[in-house]
Amino acid sequence: MQTLKQQWFGNIRADILSGIVVALALIPEAIAFSIIAGVDPMVGLYTSFIIAVVISFAGGRPGMISAATGAMALLMVPLVRDYGLDYLLAATILTGIIQLIFGICKVAKVMKFVPNAVMIGFVNALAILIFMAQLEHFIGISTMTYLFVGITLILVYTLPRFIKVIPAPLIAIVALTSIAIFSGVNLNTVGDLGTITQTLPSFFIPNVPWTFETLQIIFPYALSMAIVGLLETLLTSQIVDDMTGTESNKNGEARGQGIANFITGFFGGMAGCAMIGQSVINVKSGGRGRLSTFIAGIFLMFLIIVLGDLVVQIPMPVLVGIMIMVSIGTFDWSSFNYLIKAPRTDAIVMLTTVIIVVYTHDLSKGVLAGVLLSAIFFVIKISTVKISKDGNRYSIHGQLFFASIDGFVDYFKKANIQSKKIQIDFSDSRVWDDSGVGAILKVSELLKSKGIQVELVELDSSSKKIMDKLNGVLSSH
Amino acid sequence: MYKHILLASDGSENAVRAAQEAVKVASFDKESVIDVVYVIDIEKSKSDVLHANSSEAVDLERRKKNSKVIQVLNQANAAYQTTILRGKPGPEIVQYANQQKVDMVIIGSRGLNTLQEMVLGSVSHKVMKRVNCPALIVK
Question: Where do the UspA domain residues begin and end (chain B) (predicted)?
Answer without folding.
Answer: 1-139
